Each structure stands twice: as C-alpha cells, then as structure tokens.
Amino acid sequence: MDATFRKSMALLHTWAGLAVGAVLFAVFWTGALILFRAEIDQWMMPETRLAQPAAPPSLDRAAELVLPLLPEGATQWRIDLPTSRTPVAAFSWKLPDGTEGVRLFDPVAYRVLAEQGTDGASGFLVPLHYSLHVTWYDAGKWLVGLAGMAMLALLVTGIVIHRKLIAQFFTFRPRKRLPRSALDLHNLAGVVLLPFHLMLALSGLVIFITVFFPQAHVGTYGGGAKAKAAFMADAYGRYTRKKGGEPAAPASLDAMRREAERLWGGGQPYFVRAWQPGDAAGVVEFRRSYARAVTMNLDQLYFDAATGKLLRRFEAGPVMTAQRVFSGVHFARFDHGTLRGLYFAGGLGGCVLIATGFLFWLEARRTRHARQGLHGVRVVEALAVGGMTGIVLATLAYLLANRLLPADAGLPGWDRAALERGTFWAAWLAACAHAWLRRTAAWHGQLRAIAALGLAAMLLNWFTTGGSLLPDVLGVDLGLLAFAAAAWYAARRLGAHRAENTGA
User: Fold this and answer.
1) Pairing between strand 300-304 and 283-288?
2) What is the spatial distance between Cα 277 and Cα 245, in angstroms, rounded to a whole number?
3) β strands within 173-325, DSSP E
4) Helix H or strand E segment including 454
C-alpha cells in the first residue's frame, strides 16, 4: 500500500481522535452505564426495590388507582407495565402545552409511590448519551452524530495504518514503559472490538435518520408539517381521532389486552396509552413488547376507548423494520443478561481504546513539545483528563448526591432532581478546571478521587438504605467497588511511571 496514503490515514486517525475523543468517551461511558439503567434506577430510587410481580397486573385496577391523578385537560396518559428488570409500573401524562408528568406505582399492592426526587439513569444518563443534554436545534444529537461518523473514520483508518492486525492481537506487554504498553492495549482493544464498535457507530447513525436526514421524506410526502406528520404516521404508526366533545365511560382495558395478546399470538404489551381520555372519540393504544427479540418492533393495536372495538392494527414496513433491527442491535433492550454483559464489556473497551490512544499521543510528544516550547500537550492533556476521568468523577458525584440529599431538598427554582443534575455538571466543571491547573498530576489525583468516591457511593447506599441483596442493586454496588479498585490500580501504575521518569 502506498506509504503516502497510509501516512495521510495516520494523520486523519490522529486528528479525528483528538478532535472528538472526549465526546466519544462520554458516549461510550454513558452507553455502557445505561445498559443497566433499570438496575441503576432501582439503586437511586430505594422505594422501587420491589419483588417481581408473579403475574401481569390488572389494567382496570391500575387505572382505578392512577386515573384520579390525571390533571384536567390532559390529552393522553400512559401506563408502562413492569418487566423482568423493572418491578414498578409508571403512569405518565401529557398536557396540551407539552407539560409532562409521571408517577410510579407498585403493581402488586396497587399503591402509588412517593415522588422519587431524582431523574435516575433513565431520565439523565440516557439523554446525556445521545444528546449531551444540548437541545438547542438538536445540536447535541448532531454533535454525537458527528462523533459517530468520526468513529467510523477512526476504525477504518486504524485498519489501514496498522498492517499487522493479527500480530497485534497477540501483543500486549503490560510491563513495558507506559507509552509502549498503552499502544499495545490500544491496538489490542481496537482489533478485538472492531466489529462491535463498527456495529454501534453505524446503528447509532441509522437510529437518528430523521434527524440527520430531515428531508428524506420530502420526495414522497412533500414538504411542510402535515407531510412530515403523514410520513411519521406511516413509518412509526399512529392513529388518532378528533375530540368529539361527548363524554364516555372507558371500556375494560383488561379485555382489550386479552384481545391484543390473542392477535399477537401470545405476545405481551409493554405499555398502554389512551388518547383524548374521557371523550367518546378516545382511542386506546397497546404497544407490543420486544423483550424477547432483537428487533424493536412497532406493532401497535388501537381500540375504541368506549366500546373496546379494534380500530387499527399497525406493523412496520420493510424499510422501517430494517431501521428497527439496527435500533434493537444498538439499544440492547432484549432480555438476555449474558449478552448485555458483553455489550457492557464492549462499551468499557471503547473507553479503554480512547483513553490509551490519548495516553500514547501524550507520552510520545511530551518531551519534544516541552523542548520546543509547544503547548499542544497541555491542551490535549486537559481535554483528556477532563473528558475521561472528569466525567467518571461527575457520574459518581451524581450518585453520591442522590444518597446524601434529603428527600425534601430544594432551592428556589431547583427541585431535588435539579440539584442532583447540578452536582453532576459542577463536578465535571471542577474536574476540567483541576485538569488544566494540575496538568499531568491531575491524572493521579482524579483516579484516586474516583477510587474514593466509588467506595463512598457503595458504602453510603448501605448506610442510608440498609443495602439490598436484590441481585440488581447488589450488582450496582459490586460495580462501584470494581471501578474503585480499577481506578486505584491505575493511579498506582501512573504513580510508579512518574517516579520512574523523575528518578524518585
């Protein structure tokens, strides 16, 4: 292969990695964590640590419990049923101005739970993964999409510039000096996880096809809001009727569910949603569960709310089915603990890949840049420390705030969940400032802080809630302990490297 072409690919690999490495680390880190969003939610919401229901709850009885909570004028409400990983049910609603609300309830005792005062993992880490919480003109999604494109370029250029992929698979020398061992681990992680990372980067782009290709429907449906609504209805399925203005009592939800299960050949719904509740033109929607399938199906059934008569059955067409296969592969929402564990390992492997890439770049240039009076190493090191150990510290601070803040904590304009979110952003900002001020020493200090906070979060969970032997919650505690141990080991390794370089 032409040496000039390989050199240009190496240049692209280096600069693409430096430009979006911190964003990619945030995406991989949060992506790995939210694979266990249900378990982290239980850790952060002790009242939801319930035993799994032995049988599906009665929807009619659940509706009797939660519908008195429905605000007047609500245009829709929804009940998310418990799953094998989430023992609680959720009742949510939406008002005409877009305001949304949610309450959790015990589907066995039919008891509404108190306000949890937290966004948990589902409400905070999930949107952080795909949008970085930057909602202005979907800028966060575009930034994550750009990082996904860059990831594809990094993987392809990595294949081009590394000519001995098979040899590098078997080459890891952990006892060598830090630049050599970091490059070995970077190459090993890149080779082993190449198919996984290609799959995730590509599927992540396909999921947001309507964001990244907003005009894709125009050729068939035309422009304007009505055309887009028609496209979305055909693609994702939606059936609505204009509000009639006549009140009507709802038919039995349990009877509708039995009909849905019959039509789906025994398939179970995972949520039920009512449109225009209380109106004679109201519609009840059932969405089929995909817990036992890779494809995140769009199977929907719509019933007349007043009579229980089936109005429409929707299943995705071939193109949308392909999109939902990509979605299922990316989201990993299926019930398979071992496969989810492999996804988790692959996500952390992506973090290792990015971190070792930064380490190698820094160690390979530190001396030369210092001799030439260049500031590139300092800028990249601050970016690397703040973007990697910084976000891990911020995540642990988020968990610690969840355990330390009183149930009624709040400030003017800030409820308890907002205080938790504020703690995350403040901790991340402080970690970035620390990285800039302390330079190389920041690695060691922040790794030791991660070890301390990880251990503290686990202990606080036991002190404040009495702990839990439920496998889901215990798994989060053990994960925190494992992160603390790994950070402590990495801090010791970096400390030994610094002592070796300084001759101390």
Assistant:
1) antiparallel
2) 11
3) 269-275, 283-288, 300-304, 310-314
4) helix 441-465
Q: Which two tokens stand for residue 374?
A: 């260049």
| Residues 285-315 pLDDT 10s | 999 999 989 999 999 999 999 999 999 999 9
Q: Give just the sign of the alpha carbon dihedral 265, 270, 275, 280.
A: positive
Torsion of CA 22, 26, 31, 36, to 10 degrees: 140
Q: What amino acid occupies position 328? A: G
Going by the DSSP 8-state scheme, the letter that residue 113 receives in this structure is P
Element (H, E) at 34: helix 3-34
Specify whether the CB–CB gap between 25 and 393 falls below 8 A.
Answer: no
Q: Dihedral (C-alpha) 399, 404, 406, 412: value to the nearest 10 degrees? A: -70
| CA atoms of 380 and 376, how far apart (whole Å) | 6
Place of tokens 């009507």: 248
Give the percent of the chain with pLDDT over 90.
Answer: 69
Q: Please give the structure tokens belonging to residue 402.
A: 């969840």
The predicted-structure confidence for 381-414, as pLDDT tens digits, reads as follows 999 999 999 999 999 999 999 999 999 998 998 9
CA dihedral angle for residue 39, residue 40, residue 43, residue 48, rounded to 10 degrees: -60
How far apart CA 158 and CA 149 sit, in angstroms, is 14
Task: Count CB-CB contacts under 10 A for residue 220.
Answer: 10
* Cα–Cα distance, 194 to 158 (Å, whole number): 10
On the 0-12 / 13-18 / 19+ scale of CB atoms within 10 A, 318 is exposed
